[in-house]
Design brief:
The chain is 0% helix and 48% strand. By secondary structure, it is mainly β.
């Protein structure tokens, strides 16, 4: 999976198509990412006591009601936005030598750009 936490991504399909946001969380095992303020879903939750919130006094409560939070999006439905050319791009890998070691870096696959995504 070539999308990491903190990347700026462009949504390709779904109800938020065309919008951009930062990746909050990446789940490589499921091939999904959570994008900040996009793919918002509503969850109806009951108020529940917090376990071991404070040993003295009453237990704290998590509020109930309708809670909105971002849901995971499949990585096939997002594209990384290149920080140099500011356009959605496919991601390629290139080996770079630094301090005598070979390091893999992500690069923009646009023909007119080709710059490193990892800075």
């Amino acid at each position: 999976m070539r999308i990491k936490k903190g990347d700026l991504v462009h949504i390709l399909s779904g109800k938020d198509r065309g919008k951009q946001g930062r990746v909050i969380d990446a789940h490589p095992k499921d091939k999904k990412v959570v994008v900040e303020n996009l793919n918002i879903v509503k969850r109806h939750t009951k108020p529940r006591p917090i376990q071991n919130s404070s040993r003295m006094g009453t237990a704290g409560m998590t509020p109930g009601g309708v809670i909105e939070r971002p849901a995971p999006v499949h990585v096939g439905n997002v594209m990384v936005v290149c920080p140099v050319c500011n356009r959605p791009t496919r991601v390629g890998m290139r080996e770079k030598e630094s301090h005598g070691e070979h390091v893999k870096v992500r690069v923009c696959k646009r023909v007119d750009c080709g710059e490193e995504i990892d800075r």
